[in-house]
Amino acid sequence: MSRVPQWIGFLWALAVAALVIGCGDSAPADGPGGDDEPPGTTDTGAPTPPTPDDDPDNDAPPDDDPPDNDPPDGEPPPDDEPPEPLDWRAAPIYLVMPDRFDNGNPANDQLGRTGCLDSENPRAYHGGDLAGLARRADYLAELGVGAVWSTPLYEQTRCGYHGYWADFRLEDEGPLEPRFGTADELTAAIDELHARGIRFVLDLVVNHAGYEATITRQRPGWFHAPSGCENPGPPVETCPLSRLPDFAQEIPEVAEYVTDLSTMWPQRFAIDGVRMDTAKHVPLNYFRDYWFDAMRAEIPDLFVVGEVWLEGSYNVFEPYYDAGFDGVFNFSLRRALVDVFARGQSTDGIANRVRDGISALGLERASYLVNFIDNHDMDRWGSELDGRSFDDAELQRRYWLALTALFTLPGVPQLYYGDELGLFGDGRANRNDMPAWAWSSQTRRGPQPEAFGDPGETFDVTRRLIEMRRRHPALYLGSFAELWRQNGNNAPLYAYFRSAGDDRIVVVINNGDGPVTQALNLAAHPGIADSDKAALPDGAVFEDALGRGAPARLAVRNGSLAIELPRKTAAVYVATPGTNAAAR
Questions:
Q1: For residues 313 and 424, what is the distance between their CA atoms, to the nearest angstrom?
Q2: Three state DSSP letters for 295-364
Q3: What was the pLDDT predicted at 229?
């Protein structure tokens, strides 16, 4: 079946102009009346740290009132043909749960299973849908995202608002959950995104079916029995996760069936990428021998990222790359971004994760690790304070440091809807509806109960960082050299050099409670290429592209940059080609 052309890339003229002028796994979420508790949560719904015996790889439930139906802000997309595709690493992937993002078609709210719509119940549907995603395409383009990742769209069992309880069946033609919308509405949403240069990434599941799914009655022998499930293979692959029916991919008919469930999506819709749910619970040989061959026969350049919820050695990810995955989610770095910036721990925590990832995978593969600060399976960053208390201004400053690291370190940055606003959310509140005030630059200014600090300011900082990353190849495909880490009781800085061609950048983050002055040696650094050193003689000028309180300009003196940063401040210093302070 022919596919719709995938227009990918960014039409940035309006967004860049605005910046220049303004600078500014699937853990079940039970339906009403359900009594199953998702993995990785306490009995109150608050996420708990993952352990080898309590695997959080599945989506946990949570949420609140549906967003209103205000018309979208911004101008209609231009009629011009979009430019060439962006590198996947150049702009963030933006995660949405359609049910919690925007309700664009209230007529579908009561479709599907009865008793499942209740905007006050975090385990029920709230009304968001694909029509809502389509009409917020301007908002996403204004922010500058490179791709939208949607949670699964399968028809659901129970009240699976999150999409991970698919009601699979024989001769499945891929019905969408009616509350999310129709096939035409999905096509329209993808078209709206593509018209703005935004890719579409779909969440797929091959590990399990939903509770009481039709296929479990049609083919009961296709699933691992809970009793003795550790005998066929590693329990992490063969034992049911949260009692969800676990497909036995070692049976050829099952492998072919679940593969067909995936290939029907690119056959019908112009998807650009896949987020593979619960990837570590599926045998790697299934992906290698079945899934990737079939999917890339449909889309040769399909981008695939796997959910492999592990926080130990990065060496464990090598087999996933070898099997065909482009990248995996970087849960280890996410924990460090919380520990260092929200909880005030040493910047060594981040430096160690970055070093270990590059050492284990090499810079190229490490640059496809998907970095994030939170997602739908964990507390939002601003609710991860571990008992600490900060005023809004302090929490916002710390958050901006985390965002700066997210958008300047090697990897593919990923945002969860509302991250650009600084939303709170712990336990089930981590899936609260996108606030109605989010959509307009006027209404998101000033304090809001759902967010810390000024959400309008945080939106501007996020957009600025996204634009900066897009503009500078050094930040998404460049070399990496660590310039400074805290290393015990030294200056609480994390600083690094990134370079691609003539694009050279020094990122400095002061995580301390006071100002810091520190010289960063460039000329003698063994990790900086000779060509970069030659391009940065004494007098070479760096200018801060972030503009959040750091000195605007620095010059190389005696082979070093003398950094002076206020407390809790970051700077992104870009070398200015052909400038020399001594000549001015």
A1: 30
A2: HHHHCCCCEEEECCCCCCCHHHHHHHHHHCCCEEECHHHHHHHHHHHHCCCCCHHHHHHHHHHHHHHHHH
A3: 86
For 389-447, the DSSP string reads: ---HHHHHHHHHHHHHHHHHSSSEEEEETTGGGTB---GGGGGPPPPGGGGSTTTTSS-
Same domain, 466 and 493: no
In a domain, 46, yes or no: no
Helix (H) or strand (E) holding 125: none
SS3 content of the chain, % helix, strand, coil (to 5): 35, 20, 50
Cβ atoms within 10 Å of 267's Cβ, excluding its own = 14
pLDDT of residue 230: 81
Give residues with Cβ within 8 angstroms of 369, minimum separation 6. 317, 327, 328, 329, 330, 333, 357, 361, 410, 411, 412
Strand-pair partners of 482: 496
**Same-domain check for residues 404 and 450:** yes
**Shared-domain flag, residues 492 and 449:** no
End-to-end Cα separation, the chain, in angstroms: 63
pLDDT of 580 reads 60
Task: Write down the pLDDT at residue 84.
Answer: 59
Name residues whose C-beta falls within 8 Å of residue 420's C-beta, 6 or more positions apart in sequence.
Answer: 143, 458, 459, 462, 463
Judge contact between 500 and 507, C-beta under 8 A.
no
If one counts the domains in the chain, the total is 2
Per the rule left: phi > 0, alpha: psi between -120 and 50, beta: everything else, 91 is: beta
Q: Which residues of the chain have pLDDT under 70?
A: 1-85, 386-387, 578-584
Using an 8 Å Cβ cutoff, are 433 and 65 in contact? yes
pLDDT tens-digit series, residues 150-201: 999 999 999 999 999 999 999 877 789 999 999 999 999 999 999 999 999 9
What's the pLDDT at 570?
98
Domain span at residue 346 reads 13-41+56-471
List of long-range contacts for 48-53, beta carbons under 8 Å, 24+ apart: 50/309, 50/311
Q: Using only C-alpha atoms, what is the Rg of the chain?
A: 24
Report strand pairing: 93-96 vs 516-521.
Answer: unpaired
Residue pLDDT, tens place only, 495-504: 999 999 999 9
**Cα(259)–Cα(257) distance, rounded to whole angstroms?**
5
User: Residue 16: is it exposed, middle or buried by C-beta count within 10 angstroms (0-12/13-18/19+)?
Assistant: middle
- From 471, 506, 536, the end of a domain falls on 471
Q: Tell me the CA distances in angstroms from 452 to 260, 399, 429, 515, 523, one per residue in order.
A: 45, 10, 15, 24, 41
Residue 308 domain flag: yes
| Torsion sign, CA atoms 213, 215, 221, 222 | negative
Q: What angle do CA 168, 149, 385 make, to 5 degrees?
A: 110
Q: What pLDDT sits at residue 16?
A: 35
